[in-house]
From TrEMBL:
Name of the protein in question: Acyl-CoA thioesterase
Source species: Neptunomonas concharum
GO MF annotation list: long-chain fatty acyl-CoA hydrolase activity
PROSITE patterns assigned: HOTDOG_ACOT (PS51770)
Record family assignment: Belongs to the acyl coenzyme A hydrolase family.
Annotated GO CC locations: cytosol
Domain HotDog ACOT-type: from-to ranges: 4-116
Keywords carried by this UniProt record: Hydrolase
Keyword Membrane set for record: no
Amino acid sequence: MSGKERQLTLRFLAEPADVNFGGKVHGGAVMKWIDLAAYACAAGWSGKYCITAYAGGIRFVKPIHVGSIVEVAAKVIYTGRSSMHIALDVRAGDPKNTKRYLTTHCIVIMVAVDDQGQTTDVPEWVPETPEDIELRDSAIRLMDMRKKIGEEMEAHIQS
Ligand SMILES: CC(=O)SCCNC(=O)CCNC(=O)[C@H](O)C(C)(C)COP(=O)(O)OP(=O)(O)OC[C@H]1O[C@@H](n2cnc3c(N)ncnc32)[C@H](O)[C@@H]1OP(=O)(O)O
């Protein structure tokens, strides 16, 4: 059966090409990894091709050093008709031991599209544990807050 895999973790090493002049991983590289993990998670849940509609709440907590093992964990925390809200945590650490620290956290909203590029339905994710119910409720609260931010951002958009 395709789809319905709620979470996944990408694991790889931070390479020299990912690093800025200060010896730490570029924020843009971290954002690319987040987008890749969000896509893989959304495709795994929906069994469909997905596109990024929104990325927000990104917080760079700690830097990542070259040679670190990086783990990008992604999980579905809310589903709408065609959208999947994905919570992502990036952790890193020395590959010679199992200790990892949180480097980045954010929420990405992916939307499933059909072969014509039209948005299409995704399977509903129903939270069961108290922790998952809280994550779902938080995703709903964030949707309301985003509407207000969107209205405020209108002043900064020139078409
Ligand atoms: C592979 C890639 O990652 S592509 C690279 C980056 N991404 C892109 O280029 C995407 C560009 N954007 C788009 O194509 C369009 O804005 C789309 C397809 C994401 C949404 O198009 P819309 O006309 O708004 O579609 P529609 O009104 O059907 O909304 C679809 C869903 O997206 C959600 N959505 C749309 N825009 C946003 C947004 N800015 N923030 C959060 N959610 C959004 C809607 O709430 C809706 O969710 P639901 O179906 O679960 O209720």
